[in-house]
Amino acid sequence: MPQINIGFIGLSKSGWASTALAPPLLRNDKYALKAVSTTSKESAEASAANYSKLSGYEVKPYHGRTDQIANDPDVGLVAVAVNVRLHKETLTPVLEAGKDFFVEWPAGKNTAETIEFAKTAKAKGLRSIVGLQGWQAPAIKKVQEIIASGKIGKVLSSSVISMAPRESLLWGPVTNEKYSYIVDPSAGATMLDIVIGQQLGPITHVLGDFKSVSATSTILYPTSTLVGSDGQPTGETVSNKAPDHVAFSGILRDSGAFVNVIWRGGYKSSPGRQQFIWEIDGEEGSIRVTEDGVAASYIHLHDPKVYLNGELVEFEKSMYGNIGAAWNEFAKGKGKGVYPTIEDAVKLRQLLDAIQLSGETGKRVEL
């Protein structure tokens, strides 16, 4: 497999792309970072200089419209890691240029955008990878292995209890002013869109797709105080317009298993408060995946413990991390490797839409 040349949109000297997405690429000889694109000339040049130094070869800077980096003949894959509100205007030129792409979850601010990306990618025969990093989590792989081994028998049901803690300054009574847009459902960054989606991605990857869902949701923190980068209140408040508590149950399409999920947002990580429990009950035994640490429910970022029939299961952690492992899987080539694609993102967005609709109407929704 020849080396994959990457152009990275949204890769500045700080932020998620620079701290999480790019480092595994720079350590992977299957990839070469050829260009970066940011909003301004100054930030693009600073980023290019930084990554030229880190990589040991020249990285080209682009800024403004993303059609420039998309049409660079030296770039074969374009990675998009920008604010979700900008996914469409950022990714569309990449698709039009016929380039393979990575896009961070939730791959568009709504399902219509995600479907549009998927249709264009299919029509042009493009490969895609979506930032649902939990697919590669060692705990998720171990759970898959246990189920496949038959040690717990046929899966009959599964229950999940999760939390988005107050300390994250998101989806609760206190919000980081930098991310104040999350209170607006139209921005595509609600608790349901982001972290519930990030968790359901690997869970459905393991257990299978839902046939139907029935949900209840509510807002227990209608007002949120904005805080600055120093954690101090700015004096402003905003109205939370999306649910901070979501519960739903459903039936899986292929196995018929019953699944129950509860998410709550905004609670303090006080001693003894369980942040994440996922139980899978089979005819012959059970699996429990759990962790107490702050934001432990974000399984795309953290490594929870796995228990089989009450006994702790040891498993090897990935030397590449979840993100690096995903890049490795994509690099195996077309038709090879296990990683989430834009088609998987569409299915997940449709599931989230069904949960939202059921929560709003009080009716069971078929998928």
From TrEMBL:
Alphabetized InterPro entries for the sequence: Gal80p-like_C, Gfo/Idh/MocA-like_OxRdtase_N, Gfo/Idh/MocA_oxidoreduct, NAD(P)-bd_dom_sf
Span of domain Gal80p-like C-terminal: 138-290
One Gene Ontology molecular-function label: nucleotide binding
Domain Gfo/Idh/MocA-like oxidoreductase N-terminal as annotated: residue spans: 4-131
Pfam families referenced in this protein's UniProt entry, alphabetically: Gal80p_C-like, GFO_IDH_MocA
Protein name per Swiss-Prot or TrEMBL: Uncharacterized protein
